[in-house]
Specification:
By secondary structure, this protein is α+β, with helices and mostly antiparallel strands. The protein is built from 4 helices and 9 strands, in the order βααββββββαββα. The strands form 2 sheets. It has a 7-stranded antiparallel beta sheet with strand order 1-2-3-6-7-9-8, covered by helices on one side. The protein has a two-stranded antiparallel sheet with strand order 4-5.
Length: 140
């Protein structure tokens, strides 16, 4: 079976963030880095070449295939700052109503600029997701 391409590695998180071309996105990434380190109490690690992740959990599919993935993380992509809210959004409708301007995918929160959202609400959303992941899966 093919191995997941995006693996945790020893690349330098700060070098990666420093390489982000857009100054605003770079500053937003530094803010999210500090927020996620505070919430998870885990050091930031690079996952692949463009994702900053915190902690990890072990998942098992019905097929028996297992793997490890970050508990939460982010990527300062060109089109948006992508935040990985691994627990998803279905139980957080009230928080999302207060968050501000964003888009979502299954477990991705897309934000153009941090100034477009309420960062206290973002912190609540990340805390809730991290707590859910730690309750649900074996974590490291």
């Amino acid at each position: 079976m093919a191995e997941l391409k995006t693996q945790v590695n020893d690349a330098d998180v700060h070098d990666f963030i420093d390489s982000v071309a857009d100054e605003r996105r770079r500053e937003d990434a530094r803010t999210v880095l500090e927020l996620m380190e505070t919430i998870t109490r885990r050091p930031a690690r690079m996952w692949g070449s463009s994702i900053v992740g915190f902690g990890s959990y072990r998942y098992t599919y019905a097929s028996g295939r297992t793997g490890d993935w970050m508990i939460t993380g982010f990527s300062p992509r060109k089109s948006a700052l992508t935040l990985y809210i691994m627990a998803g959004f279905s139980k957080h409708e009230e928080l999302l109503k207060k968050l501000g301007k964003f888009k979502t995918g299954k477990s991705c929160l897309y934000v153009k600029r941090l100034e477009d959202i309420d960062q206290k609400v973002l912190a609540q959303l990340i805390r809730a997701s991290v707590a859910h992941m730690r309750r649900t899966y074996p974590t490291t």
